[in-house]
Amino acid sequence: MIPMRVPFAIKSVARRMGRYGFLVAMTAFGIAAVTLVQSVTVGMNANVIEGSARYLGGRYLVIARSAHGWAENRMAKPDELTAAVRDAGLAPRLVIKRQIAGDNDQTLFFNGASFKVRRISGIDASNEASVFEKITFVAGGTSGLPGTAGILISKQVADRFGVRLGDEITLRLVNSAGYIDSANLVVQGIFKDASIFGFYNCYVDAGLLGRLKAESEGAASILGFYFSGRENESETAAAIRSALAVAGYELMPGVERRDDLDAVWGKEWKGTRYAVLPVEEYIDAKVMDLIRAIQVISYVFLGFILLIILVGMRNTTQIMTRKRFKEIGTARALGMTRGGALRLILSESLLVATIGFAAGVVAAVIILGMLQTLPFSWSDGFDIFLKRGRITWILSLPFLAANYGALGLMTLAGALPAARRASTISPAVAMSTIE
Amino acid sequence: MALVLSLACLSGLSTAQDQSIAVLRKVDEKTNFAENDFASEYAITQVKPGEGTTFNRAIVFRRDRRSQFLVLLVEPVEDKGKGYLMIEGGIWLYDPHDRRFTFTSAQDAFRNTNARNSDFALSNLAGYYRVEKTSKEKLGIFDCDKLDLVATSPDAPFPRKSIWVSQEMQIRLSREYSLSGQLLRTVAFQYQKFQGREVPAKVIIIDELKKKVIAGQEQKENTTIIVTKPSFAILPSELFTKDYLERISK
After folding, report:
1. Is omega for the bond preceding B76 within 30 degrees of 0, making it cis?
2. For A91-105, A182-196, A315-329, B229-243, which range has the lowest pLDDT when averaged over its residues?
3. Within 13 Å and on the Cβ side, how many CA atoms surround B177?
4. Which of A109, A112, A181 sits opposite B180 (nearest CB)?
5. What pLDDT, on the 0 to 100 scale, is given for residue B14?
6. Residue A365, pLDDT score
7. B176 to chain A nearest CA, in Å?
8. CB contact A174 to B (< 8 Å)
9. What total of structural domains would you count in chain A?
10. Are B209 and A177 within 8 A, CB to CB?
């Protein structure tokens, strides 16, 4: 019974810590490195999702295309779709309706220069206050935006134009009917976001953009939902799809990922069809692929570390068992069973691994805490993974559990030959041996 | 207004809208070369306040009766051989460096100047606009009718424009607006007599959005097009083909 051996094992390990030291240090180093990478990638993943949800207009996005797959996203009555979702028992904590100008030749003019922006999002800043409080404004903010001819631009765009808060810039676009329209907009906020979500994106009031685009009152380009944040994303997206289907909305069949959306690009149909995607399935897959690649590298690294631990544990426990030949023999003579001897070695090994694991996690947390204080805003390309220009990290319990499980298995595998050997020690031979 | 009324009497049209369309048709007829092919050399100078001047020279071939044109760049040297070809209602840009045709729109800027591709195409005011308001105005030495136009088709280069039409039914000035009424461009025209009819001599395009304050003075980005060596000689039909553009660029 391992629990009965634990106090004995603790004393034994404590007495031999000098000999187990290298193994503890090696385990701690490996676990610290893996925990560091995994925690940062989990944080990066969360930041990408948060940034893309802010950029695209929700954690779960409802897309509507009329007559064909390449139609502009447009829904005439988004409130009715929201009602259908609520009627199905889903309770989004935030519902977002946005107007988007993306294929409208949207161009900004200021002081003799022009700049075509990738996307202009029409937002209801009062409704989306909780979304925008997470980005850093170097000047102004969202408060002056609702109902006004204002615009929020990124610092990069402001620097490029030499625009300051309160300056008037001209927006020119081609509206939904194909006519050029324009408006003079006062800069109400300059935000710091050098990622692809911020650099080429500007925010204006949804009503203003709707009028410029000649959209009907109450229409939206995109409908987005935020839930508690603890929900399962694919199940939630499926539940929204189901709610819309029950309410009689026609869905784009089989669209659960961005690739599926590309697959309906060439298709035509009658009326409007809808798709619901969690935001991570809607953004450019390359961003998420990068995170997954980093995670895979961390697993490869973990595997490498575990291999070293396996070999180290095997050698160390064999040497230790040989050195403790008489001690184990005596214990056997005093009533320790063969199984007891086997469990003693295994529990000692597991204890060494646990100490290494704990030391590694503590070291990782200390390093992560220090990393978090370093500004990374000098790297524009990396900004997509940051929050307010800094690395964020999340200690993921499932990852920790998996790592500990893998470490435990590898430790047991490494210590098993020595434990078996210990269980076969004859008390008589051991006691007559002079060490 | 006298011009409108006299035209209305001439054509026997009754409604004001019909009269207006008749005026626009007349302007289109005067602007286009329906009877002949037209070729000329365009010297295009763009001035960007505080940034300097860029220069393009192009040979322009027009066959308005078939809505075709070819603008072949000859300067600067690095752009020599590039061409804009309008055929079958679409405008294609050919780049000899990568030997590729790219579809472009009439509304797109020509060579990053303040001119648009539509400035080289035939005029279709009667097809794209209705007259919202007319008034009489003196423009320098010209007695003009000012026509405020509203687009009836998204194919119109601008949703709103005002044109000043002289007694000779020629546009002397054009102001082009966005749907919200913001002034986007001002275009002034000068003409030259050639073989009994007037052809463009100089076009000045002022971009009203691209303006800069330099030394306390507001300066606007502008493009001047000088038209020389006009010709009404018959052009070979193969000129208005993609094959021709590819061949001459080799």
Report:
1. yes
2. A315-329
3. 13
4. A181
5. 56
6. 94
7. 10
8. yes
9. 2
10. no
Domain boundary among A232, A257, A282: A282
The amino acid occupying position A69 is: G
Residue spans of the domains in chain B: they are 2-6+17-29+36-248
Same domain, A111 and A238: yes
Nearest C-alpha in B relative to A108: B209
Mean pLDDT of A408-431: 83
Residue range(s) defining the domain that contains residue A274: 56-282
**Per-residue model confidence (pLDDT) at position B1:** 47
ipTM for the whole predicted complex goes beyond 0.90: no
User: In the predicted model, what is the mean pLDDT of residues A171-187?
Assistant: 91
Picking from A179, A204, A209 by the largest number of B CB atoms within 10 A of its own CB, the best residue to mutate is A179
Mean pLDDT of B206-229: 90
| CATH no., domain B2-6+17-29+36-248 | 2.50.20.10
Q: Tell me, what's the pLDDT at A297?
A: 81
Cβ–Cβ below 8 Å for A180 and B212: no
Domain boundary among A240, A260, A282: A282
CA distance A297 to chain B (A): 40
Distance, in Å, from the CA atom of A135 to the CA atom of A189, rounded to the nearest integer, reads 11
Which of A114, A178, A182 is facing B178, going by the closest CB pair? A182
Q: Are B121 and B106 in contact (CB under 8 A)?
A: yes
**Overall size of chain A counted in residues:** 435
Q: Are residues A295 and A257 part of one domain?
A: no
pLDDT of A2: 45
**B92-109 pLDDT, tens per residue?**
889 888 888 888 877 788
- Residue A172 with chain B: CB contacts under 8 Å: 178, 184, 209
Q: Which of B158, B159, B210 sits opposite A112 (nearest CB)?
A: B210
Question: Out of B49, B180, B211, whose CB is closest to A182?
Answer: B180
Asked whether B172 and B144 are in contact (CB, 8 A), the reply is yes
Are B159 and A114 inside 8 Å of each other by CB? no
